[in-house]
Amino acid sequence: MSDMHPLTRKITIIGAGNVGATFAYALMLSGLCSEIVLIDQNTAKAEGEVMDLNHAVPLTHPTRIRSGSYADCAGSAITVITAGTAQRPGETRLDLAKRNAAIFKSIIPDVVVNNPDGILLITTNPVDVLSYVSLKLSGLPDERVIGSGTILDTARFRHLLGQHFNLDARSVHAYIIGEHGDSEVPVWSLANIAGIPIEDFCAVSGCSCDDEARNQIFIQTRDAAYHIIERKGATFYAIASGMVRIVESILRDQHTILSVSSHIKGLYDIQDVFISLPCVLNRHGIQRVIRLPLNAMETEALQNSARALQEVLHSLD
Ligand code: NAD
């Protein structure tokens, strides 16, 4: 990215499925980039999505949208990876990780050889594991490999808190950290509204958010994907919006703090794993990771989450 022309506004998306195509649409509507390339092993699917998207261009933002091959990654500010297979019924997270890691072995080297200066943004699940795999396969510096991580879980958490307090979710400040998945951690100790800790906000506003309510909000956050997949087979609008937010922070050098997955080496005694914490994002990718003053329970939960991810990593080849 450092050698990249500052006006580069090209984004390449690998995987033109639900998430990849919805992200391309959201990105086009955002007007953030000048060029979008879609690559999929199912070339007809990529071509069809491109045709449909291009017909929206005259009605939205001038954007060059085309399908392509790995050579077309060249010059992309960010290559976004959404390619992969979904979890089969009864399949363990480890089996899914193995299948998608094998797919990544056939993708990441081709991306990097054609675009050594770009940033990688990974969304395929299990996202923390595959972000680590991408770091190793690519040889890119830590700051240029980013997993979408808990940006989605944090959005779900803020939505539910906003609903609970009858407030705009954007006025609720709270994070989900750790794994994007079952061991994720809600940071209740730092959650606040208008700078007021939740407990004090309840006292001044006459609301309540007791342990039972908190537990319900967290469970609904953590298990949201299961409930959506049960009903419509996949999730894609919210993650696509989160990905646009990440891309915006990078392309516009915004120094935005977002909960994304990055390579953690020593924070909270967590070593060599991708896990989500609030990170400052700028044109170089991850500028730094914010060390939250977690309480003892949250720290332990985060360390357990890291251990669960490390176990999966150790079981991969
Ligand atoms: P999908 O099946 O609709 O799309 C996947 C696409 O990847 C398909 O078009 C397929 O042809 C393509 N593909 C597979 N192998 C490929 C290869 N070797 N090269 C190029 N393309 C290849 O799936 P989806 O619903 O879009 O989900 C994609 C991934 O995103 C899944 O792993 C899903 O779990 C994940 N996801 C992550 C989050 C998150 O918050 N991180 C949220 C939603 C979905």
Short descriptors:
single chain; 317 residues; alpha/beta; six-stranded parallel beta sheet; 43% helix; 20% strand; globular; binds nicotinamide-adenine-dinucleotide
Notes on the protein architecture:
This protein is α/β, with parallel strands linked by helices. Helices cover about 45% and strands about 20% of the residues. The protein has a 6-stranded parallel β-sheet, sandwiched between helices. Helix 5 crosses helix 11 and helix 6 (about 150-165) runs antiparallel to helix 8 (about 210-220). Residues about 1-5 have low confidence and may be disordered. It binds nicotinamide-adenine-dinucleotide. Nicotinamide-adenine-dinucleotide binds near residues 41, 103 and 239.
Question: Which helices and strands, and how do they pair?
Answer:
Layout: E1 10-14, H1 18-30, E2 35-39, H2 43-54, E3 64-67, E4 78-81, H3 93-105, H4 108-114, E5 119-122, H5 127-138, E6 145-147, H6 151-165, E7 172-173, E8 176-177, E9 185-186, E10 192-193, E11 196-197, H7 198-205, H8 211-222, H9 224-232, H10 237-251, E12 256-265, E13 271-282, E14 285-289, H11 296-315
Parallel strand pairs: 1-2, 1-4, 2-3, 4-5, 5-6
Antiparallel strand pairs: 7-10, 8-9, 10-11, 12-13, 13-14
